Amino acid sequence: MSMPRAVKLFILRTNIMKKAIIRVGYSEYVMDTQQALTLLELLAEAEVYESKWKKDSETTHHIYPQESQRMVSEFKVIPTAFYHMAKMAGKPEKES
At residue 1, does pLDDT exceed 60? Predict the structure, then answer.
């Protein structure tokens, strides 16, 4: 997921948007916007690792270039106030 340089600069220079939420697989993570952009760039350069288990033989291991798959499926920049509100709420209680 490549982002235009102008968008990156706007996000990084806007003080009210210092946090980002990124979705990797089924999990979402919050981090500083700069860290999130760095993570996106690093993942874009990563190769794919896959192991295949076969019933009647050994497991095979494979490393190959990414195709069209996207490791990060969502990138949202959030206001600092939203971050602090959600942080104060803490971990949600499990429903019985």
Answer: no
pLDDT in tens, 53-76: 888 888 999 999 987 666 777 888
- For the chain, report the end-to-end CA distance as a whole number of angstroms: 39
Contacts of residue 25, Cβ cutoff 8 Å, sequence gap at least 6: 71, 73
pLDDT in tens, 25-48: 889 999 998 898 888 888 888 898
- Between CA 77 and CA 80 the distance in angstroms is 9
d(C-alpha 75, C-alpha 93), whole Å: 26
- How is the chain split into domains, by residue range? 5-89
Phi-psi region of 61 (alpha: psi -120 to 50; beta: other; left: phi over 0): beta
How far is 57 from 55, CA to CA, in rounded Å?
A: 6
